[in-house]
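Appendix C: a fully annotated inverse folding record. The material below is reproduced so that readers can follow the format used throughout the book. The structure is listed first as tokens, followed by the designed sequence.
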């Protein structure tokens, strides 16, 4: 019986973890028999859905790549096209799965990418698949291949390939928390040029852009130090602060609200309220109907009332 032939890049004995879906199981059985005829250890995990078997083999090869084992572990996966199993095997760090349809693909994948999981198509003939597997087993990393014109790689490419192994091994290796999805309202506001905001003449220091007319929704900005004199609206409104800070006095209910980024406030229809902005502030506001405003005092009265409130 033929003996295992480890490639020149490693003297460790080789172990192959194999699996397939229903469309690739017949070819997988043929290739597993070939491996065993070479006295290569095979762990056959059987047949499952292509994404399940791809994931499982990817997981096991990834785990093996993180240990200083005396055995080199690679994977063999098969499905109808060889693409699906490869996609899911590649979900794990340290796994470099390549779908190989021709023997040349396997030569390139091993030489350039240090491929350690071979993904094959169940549509391939046993003869072609056998040659693909042979190239996968016997081609060392950085060896001449069709992509190099079957000649040794130039020095600059050799240097790049040497560095690529370490860099590739870091991809996906850290559990970096996913970035919080951007706030849609904040993104929308940032995408608007200042020229899109129309001054609120009745409220010095304020500007707004109407997003929808009825019921009205808008993004509103006020400069630091601005004041909204006591006023009320026909319809109630919801608001969310996306930048800065403000204080709202609901004079109808004798309540006070200090609001910062992320804070929400609903003001019922007809409630008289006064507002002070302590820094440049931006908020999203939505009325229950069409926007209107009715002043209940002037700016001077509002400033005097706020000064008295702050002194308390």
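Designed amino acids, in order:
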């Amino acid at each position: 019986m033929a003996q295992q032939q480890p490639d020149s890049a490693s003297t460790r004995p080789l172990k192959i973890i194999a699996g397939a879906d229903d469309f690739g199981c017949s070819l997988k059985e043929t290739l597993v028999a070939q491996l065993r005829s070479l006295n290569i250890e095979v762990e056959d995990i059987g047949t499952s859905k292509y994404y399940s078997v791809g994931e499982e083999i990817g997981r096991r090869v990834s785990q093996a790549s993180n240990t200083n084992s005396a055995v080199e572990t690679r994977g063999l996966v098969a499905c109808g096209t060889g693409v699906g199993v490869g996609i899911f095997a590649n979900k794990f760090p340290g796994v470099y799965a390549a779908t190989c349809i021709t023997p040349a693909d396997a030569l390139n994948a091993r030489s350039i990418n240090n491929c350690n999981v071979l993904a094959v198509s169940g549509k391939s003939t046993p003869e072609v698949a056998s040659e693909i597997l042979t190239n996968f087993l016997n081609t060392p990393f950085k060896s001449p291949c069709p992509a190099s014109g079957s000649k040794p790689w130039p020095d600059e490419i050799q240097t790049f390939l040497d560095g690529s192994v370490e860099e590739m091994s870091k991809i996906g290796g850290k559990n970096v928390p996913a970035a919080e999805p951007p706030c849609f309202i904040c993104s929308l506001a940032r995408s608007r040029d200042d020229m899109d905001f129309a001054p609120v003449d009745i409220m010095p220091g304020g500007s707004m852009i109407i997003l929808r007319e009825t019921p009205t929704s808008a993004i509103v900005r006020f400069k630091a130090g601005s004041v909204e004199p006591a006023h009320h609206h026909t319809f109630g409104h919801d608001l969310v602060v996306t930048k800065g800070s403000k204080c709202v006095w609901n004079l109808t209910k004798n309540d006070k609200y200090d609001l910062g980024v992320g804070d929400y406030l609903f003001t019922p229809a007809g409630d008289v309220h006064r507002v002070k902005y302590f820094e440049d502030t931006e908020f999203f506001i939505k009325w229950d109907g069409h926007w209107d405003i009715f002043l209940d005092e002037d700016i001077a009265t509002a400033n005097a009332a706020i000064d008295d409130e702050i002194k308390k």
